[in-house]
Amino acid sequence: MLLALISVPSLVRAQPIGPRSAAAPSLDGTLGAGNSPAGDPTSAPYPAAGASDPASAPTPTTRALALGATLIPGVLLHGSGHYVLGRTQAAAKLLAVEAVGLGLLIAGVAPLVAFNASRYLSRSSATLSGLGAGFFVVSSLADLYGVAAPLDSRGSSPLTTPVAEAELGYRLSYAPSNIDHLLVTQLDLRWQRLHLQPSLWHAVAGRNSRQRLMFGYRPYGPIPGDTPANDGSFIELTAAVTAHSFPTKRLTTITYEVFSHGRLDLRRVDPAFEGMFGIMGLGMAAQTFHYADADGSDVSSLLLLRSGFGVYLGGSTPPHGEILSYYDHRHDDYAGGINDRAIGIPGHVGFSGRGYFSSALGMSAMAELGANWITGLSLLVRSPL
Amino acid sequence: MRATLGRIAIVAVLGLTSCEDRPGSRSMLDMRVGTAQSSSLSAQVKDGLATIRAMDDDSLWLWGGAPLFEVTLTWQGNGPHRIDLILDNALADASFVASSNATVSSQPNEPDDPPTRLRFSVDLPASDTAQLNLVTPDADDTGPYRIALMSDIQEGIDRVHSAFLLINDQPDARFVLGAGDMAISGSRDELLAVQDEMRALSIPYFTTLGNHDVHEDSPWHELFGRGNFRFVFRGVQYSLIDSAAATVDDVAYEWLDQWLEEGRDRVHVVGMHIPPLDPIGARNGAFGSRIEAGQLLSSLASAGVDLTVYGHIHSYYQFDNASIPAIISGGGGAKDEKLDGYGRHFVMIDLGADSGIISTTLVRIDP
Questions:
Q1: With CB atoms counted within 10 Å of each terminal CB, which end of chain A scores lower, N or C?
Q2: Residue of chain B with shortest Cα separation from A300
Q3: CB distance from A40 to chain B under 8 Å?
């Protein structure tokens, strides 16, 4: 789905893709693909980060009304906030994305209900409903952020990635019956379009340790080197193995997974969405459970699905960063799936953010809520962009 | 200490958003089951294995949560006193044996009493405590016997009668073991309707609760007792765990650790509503945390559990988890999983202290 959005811009009436321009378009509702010569990538109508158009800047009253509209009727009619601001085309696009989301959601939930979670249909139902929920939430948050944040305060993505980035951090994992303090080390190594990411999460008390090795290939999007990408949009295909051992529980689990995921800078959909991005990923995994006191192991499949909405902070040079809110369908990690009334079926929700103070140093923070809470901070050290 | 303080702090924060029907709240309710006090009489059911439905100085009404249990009665009056005792949801051949300072005698049932109701009169000594032990003639028999496993009645309440009659027809069945979800929303009316239907059963129905049986003001504990409990019958231990929230409360885990240790040398059946792992992993009708699921199953494997039984998924699955045979039977009448070919069903389990788990047999309710 993300691939389609990136590679077939006309599906979403996107602007021509090209390097960001300093020319700021009018956002009075007349802006659209027709504002720039079709197919002319050098005169793309994207507003640059920091650009503004005083002539069309909404008054505080209008913005307040628009913010209210993102709730009522915006909760049901996504794009209401942009409509109040006069950004009618952007509003229509948000409504369309919401409709796609609802359509997918219904397409997923309907067979789930009709066939009572049939073993033969649950995988496709969960996939469709998860993707649909992702579209639904992204269109809602894009409406809210697009109204709340003036265009001249929006950020943008770096157009290349570092060759190497190291992360050293702390995580607090709270389960009702257990609290773990975890040290996290992770390395991201990129060479051209290849990506290698080993990581280790280790409980200070020694109760568990998680090792993960991920290998990725990025056919599209920012990579290390001197050739900048058009924006932060990317597609990456990954394969990973995760071993999680619990010595005191006499248990080790190993998850083997393939996952394709990506990011779409939403300015491709409409210039009014400058500084925002959506993420989506889909994959499958097999998790094996190895018990010290059992003769055999268990194997259980996992649907991997991730969607989210994020915003860039700052420009392509430091200080800059991004904030992301997301849903992750994983049940095998520290957060797991939401329990209680959700009875474990969905995955978890989370927030993450990262910011770089210089070309080399940065920090990240995260929080996830599933069956367990997990939160933490990391120090980031990277090679120059 | 530091970890405990940290936990208290986090719990305090989480408590702001907690619900009354969280599993931790239910564990607290478990601890209150089987205790009552009137003006001069107090009753205490050991391990909460029966619910005290009503009590005054002259009568006691119990709902059995296990085939065998022990009641301690304390009469604080000046002279000897007789009370009427009604026990519902009991084996028909069960009877109370009293401690030497009291006497208990069976009383005839009334015409509209269900087959699982027993009546007794108990003579209590003045200002003293007496113990009543519920026993059966075969309590010490370690030979094979049968139980029925049935869960997830829910919307099927109006037609569960036929299922109960079919269970009555199963030879040598001693009781029904339930893995939860008798109701749709867990309202009092629904639970009482199930109880009313259970009058057709000739054997008792001992069950844990499911996610549909509880809500913020659920009367489950008042009517049917504990969600977490264990009992031993004819040398086989049954440990039932409240997993209705797709997790197990930490207090219940402490109980389970004890029960697993107790059952290490016994044939041991562990039951709960939501299974730790769904055989269809991508569906995840299971614990929210695979980590917790794996750790629980590892504990069961370490303790040599012989059989795990679950409900929640409205179909029939037979598989192994942590090399322990497992059954999911959610065919009590709830909307059934389509395309699976099972429909309404229950499972007969043949087992014994000497022989272990002998066999499990699927019984379809509808022809």
A1: N
A2: B281
A3: no
